[in-house]
Design a protein that fits this description.
Helices cover about 25% and strands about 25% of the residues. It has an 8-stranded parallel β-barrel, surrounded by 7 helices. A 6-stranded antiparallel β-sheet has the order 9-8-28-29-30-27, with no helix packed on it. The chain has a 6-stranded antiparallel beta barrel with strand order 15-16-19-18-17-20. A hairpin with a 4-residue loop joins strand 15 and strand 16 (about 335-340). Helix 5 (about 150-155) runs parallel beside helix 7. The radius of gyration is 29 Å and the shape is globular.
Length: about 650
């Protein structure tokens, strides 16, 4: 059995730090949830027990939503047996798919669980995407840096059975995923093993080739957050079918808000385009108005969706400064007043810019003042006024915590119901209630009943309809109830209620039986040929199984992963599409056509300085990439890495053609 056809279905894929958050993601509109297991996930502090994951699977499958477990770190040899055992546990728990980075897993004896290629696999080209599909991946997560046109080119080489997944929201790593080693080089904490130290969020000073300061103490490797709200339909047309929200470290409110936001956007598209459908069952009703600006973000960008743009960096601050709120008008001894565009609440988080810093404060108490055209508020902050440097009339105030809005999200903020249609018929010995849901699944229940005419036929019909329509505590939303009895019989309320409950239970069982869990695709035969026959440390090969996998697919030479400590000299510690030359208008391509400048700007190396760290920037203009170059620290190099595979030439047999 292969993966069910999902080529016309749109999947909203939400993150879950915990199983509880995963449950809320589904209620708020997610068609699938990805979550970390007990180990081997790329967010090592976001693990969950198999028991919790199994409970989440049971809940998700009620709506035919799916659960994916992230097993997307590179593994050393000593971990392969534990990883294999964990995969078996995931399969037994009903997990729908694994998201993996380490291709050595494909060499193991695994259950037939569906496999998805992680963004850590660095999928940027049609050739690599096709290869991964050919070796058995059902879903592939493309690099965030691709343009919409490049996504379409990838989709064009894949069959309809392969789902293209793309990140549409959340934090952006500055490097291509899987191509960042700076954390391991400086601290021994490997991003490819789930323990990134986030050096990209630190402040740096940028020097040009002559040592002159280009930018001082800025967060030059910190990106704004991804927001593809305006590009969803273009991504659909390019072939994306799974729309992924980043955030396995994010809290409940973020997941509720962002999932609800994209659920509304996708539902709007589905209403306009009947050839498409949602990937799971049920309609979500939200008890709040989603607003991405109210959840943590560093500013918004659609990154490279339409090509390179200058404004992708969050250089000033890696923190959440929120949305504009108003302007300070007066300062008192222990309060200040501001002209605000929205109401305030006790507990709101506020901030303002002072010099090159962001000053944060909490509004302990707020009161509206006066009857003015523009609302004014008096704010008593949690700190003394004299300690709030730079606070004065005219300062712009932003809000990064809307306490009243967060309170609305803290309780029950959504419900998800599956539409059903009911029909009641009678026969000589009783009544049958049949249900059909929005997916065409049918079930019913029958009750034996001696037919008795009622004293008041109109009242009896109304009472029967009322009892049979009470689906409020179930997953179902009744659309229509058709009473096709020869006449309105007298039916005790207890009998009618039992008939409704039994029919609903039967439909639950029928839906469970109808749900088809996708299985791992069979790789093509003869084995697909990898696009390159030589792999450097950038391929992240950290175990013998991975080396054997690549050898079987035509690779002649496989170097060890960076974590094996065989690259002691200077190498690219980070490869990124983000380019600081471009950001500061120093790119040779920007100079083309500019009178008096053309030909005089060269992509010479630059230097990043942050504390005691000095990193060289080299620019590959042909590929339009920036490389952050450095070497592994002595104290990291002195610590022996876990057993890993050395760089060796592998046995090579010329591959047979695909035909």
């Amino acid at each position: 059995m292969n993966t069910p056809d999902r080529s016309h279905r749109l999947e909203l894929l939400a993150p879950a730090k915990t199983a509880e958050i995963g449950r809320e993601a589904i209620l708020h509109g997610a068609d699938a949830v990805y979550i970390g297991g007990p180990s081997f996930g790329a967010r090592h502090n976001a693990g969950n027990s198999i028991a919790d994951i199994a409970a989440l699977v049971e809940f998700a499958h009620r709506f035919h939503a799916r659960i994916f477990v992230t097993l997307n770190t590179i593994l050393h040899d000593a971990e392969l047996d534990a990883a294999r055992a964990l995969i078996r546990q995931c399969w037994d728990a009903g997990v729908d798919a694994l998201i993996v980075q380490d291709l050595g897993l494909l060499e193991l004896d695994l259950p037939p669980i569906e496999l998805h290629a992680s963004t850590q696999c660095d999928i940027r080209t049609p050739a690599k995407a096709r290869f991964l599909a050919d070796v058995g991946f059902s879903q592939i997560v493309l690099a965030r840096e691709l343009t919409i046109a490049q996504i379409a080119a990838v989709r064009a080489v894949l069959g309809p059975e392969t789902i293209v997944e793309h990140f549409i929201h959340g934090a952006l790593c500055v490097a291509y995923s899987g191509q960042c080693y700076i954390s391991h080089a400086h601290t021994g904490r490997s991003a490819n093993r789930g323990d990134c130290s986030q050096a990209c969020r630190l402040p740096y000073t940028l020097h040009d080739g002559e040592g002159r300061v280009v930018a001082f103490d800025k967060h030059l490797l910190s990106m704004k957050d991804n927001n593809q709200s305006a590009n969803l339909e273009a991504l659909i047309d390019a072939g994306v079918r799974s729309f992924k929200i980043e955030g396995r470290y994010k809290e409940m409110g973020y997941v509720k808000n962002i999932t609800g936001h994209y659920r509304q956007l996708l539902d709007g598209i589905l209403e306009r385009r009947p050839e498409l459908a949602a990937a799971a069952s049920g309609r979500t009703r939200l008890g709040f108005a989603p607003d991405p600006d109210k959840s943590f973000h560093r500013g918004a960008t659609d990154y490279f969706a339409h090509g390179r743009g200058a404004d992708v960096g969050a250089f000033d601050s890696p923190t959440f400064v929120g949305t504009p709120l108003g302007t300070v008008t007066r300062i008192g001894a222990d309060w200040f007043e501001l002209s605000a565009t929205e109401p305030l609440a006790n507990g709101d988080g506020l901030n303002y810019a002072h010099k090159r810093a962001v000053v944060g404060l909490q509004a302990n108490r707020v009161e509206p003042i006066g009857a003015r055209a523009q609302p004014h508020w008096r704010v008593w902050p949690n700190e003394r006024i004299k300690q709030l440097a730079g606070l004065r009339p005219g300062v712009e105030i932003r809000r990064n915590r809307d306490h009243a809005w967060e309170q609305a999200l803290a309780g029950r903020s959504a419900e998800r119901r599956i539409r059903v249609w009911a029909e009641l018929v009678d026969d000589t010995g009783g009544l049958t209630l049949s249900l059909q849901d929005e997916d065409g699944i049918r079930a019913g229940a029958r009750v034996a009943l001696e037919h008795q005419p009622p004293r008041d036929e109109t009242a009896a019909r109304g009472a029967l309809r009322d009892c049979l329509s009470r689906f409020g505590t179930t997953d179902y939303d009744l659309q229509d109830l058709s009473l096709k009895c020869r006449r309105a019989w007298f039916v005790p309320a207890s009998v009618a209620n039992r008939l409704r409950r039994d029919a609903a239970t039967a439909l639950i069982d029928a839906r469970r039986a109808a749900f088809a869990r996708g299985l791992r695709r069979r790789p093509i035969e003869p084995p697909a040929v990898y696009p390159d026959d030589t792999l450097s440390y950038l391929a992240n090969v950290y175990n013998r199984a991975a080396r054997a996998f690549y050898a079987r697919h035509g690779v002649r030479l496989v170097e060890a992963a960076y974590e094996a400590h065989e690259e002691a000299g200077e190498v690219s510690l980070m490869i990124t599409k983000h380019c600081l030359r471009y950001s500061f208008s120093l790119c040779p391509k920007q100079a083309k056509g500019v009178t008096g400048v053309q030909g005089q700007v060269r992509a010479e190396p630059m230097t990043l300085v942050g504390g005691s760290e000095r990193l060289t920037l080299r620019f590959d203009c042909r590929a339009c990439e920036m490389h952050v170059v450095g070497r592994i620290k002595k104290h990291v190099l002195a610590s022996p890495p876990p057993s890993a595979v050395p760089a060796v030439a592998v046995a090579f047999h010329p591959p047979r053609s695909r035909s």
